[in-house]
Structures are given as C-alpha cells and as structure tokens.
Amino acid sequence: QYLIVYEHYPWLNGLTGGLSGPYGTNRNVWKEVFEECEVDLALNGDQHIYYRSKPINSKDEIVSYNDPKGTVYIGAPQMGKRDRIRTDNQNPEYFEVRSDDKVGDDGTSGITYFKVTTKGITGTLIDLDGKVIDTYTIPAKRKVVWNDEKAIIGNNLVFTSVNNTGYINYNSNYMNYINEIRVKDVSGNSITSIKPREDNCK
Fold it and tell me: What's the CA gap between 142 and 66, in Å, rounded?
C-alpha cells in the first residue's frame, strides 16, 4: 500500500534548505523515478538536521498530500550533542518543519517512530526527554489489496444450504476490503462468485 525509500545521504539539504542534497546521490537524481513510482515517503540521515518537507513532485511543485505524484522527504535528527544546526533558510515554503523553533535551533536530539495503518503513515518525533516535538500523518493514496492467504487469516466463513438456497455468514477484520467471494467445490472447481452487498461491505 505504501512505497518508502531510504538513503543515507540527504535528498534535500537540511543545512541550507536546498531542494537537492549536497552530494551526487540526491533528489535531483531520483525525483523523476519517485514520481513515476509514486513514492510516498523518502527518508535520509547523514546531516543530522531534522526536516520534513511538504509533498513535492518532480517539477519542484508543492502538491496535495493526496496527490500520488508528491513525495514527502524527511531527514533524521541527531542523536546526542553533535552541534548540527542549519546555516541558511533557502526555500522555506517547501518545508513543514526544518530545525526551526518547533524542533529547536540548538540541534534537537531525538528519534522518529512511525505507525502504519491502512489509513496513513503517522510519524512522531520525540526528544531525549520523551517530549513530542513533531507529529504528522501522510494519508494513504492507494487502497489495500489483500491476497488470498492474507484474506483467510482471522476469518470466520460459514456456508449453509437450505432448500438449495445458500447463505454465507462472513465475519472478518478485512470486511471493508472484500471485492468478491468465490465459491468452489471440494475439488477446487469454481461454482460461482458473489459480489458483497454494498450496505454490508465495500
């Protein structure tokens, strides 16, 4: 459902706010690939300057969080006192946060943890004292697609026949993602397929 990439060297320049990293392996090299593949999130380390961009497409345009062509870029903060602070404030309109008053110009130490659900990726940055410095959600742009094995896990499927009329009682954690129920005989031959009722299942 999500496509996340990671590179040690920065995609954007956390020190200056530049739209490309300071080394050859950076956003300018990959941005067209990211747009073609519809990358949701790109993470990097190296500079130890925390930043979080707005969604940016390959044409350096800021787009909606729901636009599949936009990628959010996040740089990891420092751990410990490394005296990494920003040196310039180029392109501030492209950043939601970049080592500013919200995360500390003194080079805040911290970690980011992510919670991934079918609705989005929620990230939280906390400092060494456990204080929440930044939190955000990148909404899901794609629907969940379960394969047959995943759809079976945790399901309770009961099929009964009364006077040649079939009834299916179906309870599942994945109910909202069922597009079709296929009925097969004991030999594996398909008998029929059933589209769930819209009032019960999307």
Answer: 10
